[in-house]
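Kindly inspect this chain:
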Amino acid sequence: ERDGKNLNTGDDPKHSRHSAIDELLSDPCFFPINTHGGLLCFGAPWEVPAMYNVVEAVKQLRGQAEGRQIPDCRRALVFGNGGVLSASAVAILARS
């Protein structure tokens, strides 16, 4: 349940689990993705794009992401890979 919305709504097609989840995910503050706009404008040297994501996550957690700040951001998940079939990593960052 989130904001009074029960995700286990039964068999009513107008209020199915999928439509409730779709509704929540369409709210950019519920599950924000690429708050810095993505990496198309940053170029893509193999090791660097993940660091841009870490920098954005830290800015969000510190409340310093002017113009794109997620209200009350407490956690951030960052993913990066180091090239085709070489290495991948996930970092979960949080503020206390």
